[in-house]
Amino acid sequence: MSWHEFIDMGGRGAYVWSAYGVALVVLVVNLLAPALWRRRLLRELARRLKRSRNPQ
């Protein structure tokens, strides 16, 4: 089996590799989204706390 045959996967390579790509994107988003949401939430809470302590 050559690399070309492996990539082509019997003519179904476009479907298989695009499915792997979509799955990878979903996994990365599922890993990064909570961390980004947490960071944004902590910034917002810190901003609100600062505003409530110094209401000018």
Description:
With 56 residues, the chain is mainly alpha-helical. It has a domain at 26-56. It has two helices and no strands. The longest helix is centred in the middle third of the chain and has 41 residues, at 13-53. The chain is rod-shaped and about 70 Å long. The model has no long low-confidence stretch (mean pLDDT 93).
- Percent helix: over 70%
Report the C-alpha radius of gyration, rounded: 23 Å
Q: Look at the helices and sheets and give the structural class.
A: mainly alpha
Q: How many beta-strand runs? A: 0
| Element order: H for helix, E for strand | HH
Shape designation: rod-shaped
Enumerate the spans where pLDDT stays under 50 for 5 or more consecutive residues.
none
What are its keywords?
single chain, rod-shaped, 84% helix, mainly alpha, 56 residues
Give a brief outline of the structure.
The chain has 56 residues and is mainly α. The chain has a domain of 31 residues.
Architecture blueprint of SSEs:
Elements: H1 3-8, H2 13-53
